[in-house]
Amino acid sequence: ATQIVLQSFADRTLILVTQIGKVGNLIQASLPSTTPLSTEPSDTATEITLPEPSPAIQLTPLLGSAPSDHYQTLYSLYTSQIATIVWESPAHDTFDGSRKSIVVGLALKKAADAGAGCELSEDERATFQGIMRMLQDMLKGGSS
Prior knowledge:
- By secondary structure, the chain is an alpha+beta fold.
- The protein is built from two helices and five strands, in the order ββββαβα.
- It has a five-stranded mixed sheet, covered by helices on one side.
- The chain is globular.
- This is Proteasome assembly chaperone 3.
């Protein structure tokens, strides 16, 4: 079971994704307001489409560290994708012309068949797709 908590503050948005009931690693994603967001979803072979994260996203670890290089890459992928989904959501408050930083807390169970290096296992891919779908549904429904 995965829980997602979304809380908006004046200067940033906090999103916690947990499967173990903890805050986990906190990573901040920021993107200069002059950097355009993609308007087209990335091509995927799955049933959901995800916006492509900008290469200009800056990730800053705030709390905790990944247990391995593989998980560091996985956490960076999650943070970049979650931030991009939130920034491109119509529910995201961008009326003042600024783009708030997104702080993502990740506390995920380790996959039984965790990939090696930068390769994602099938369980990791399914979990990633499921979490992104949950976040998109949550933002479409206006739940925050």
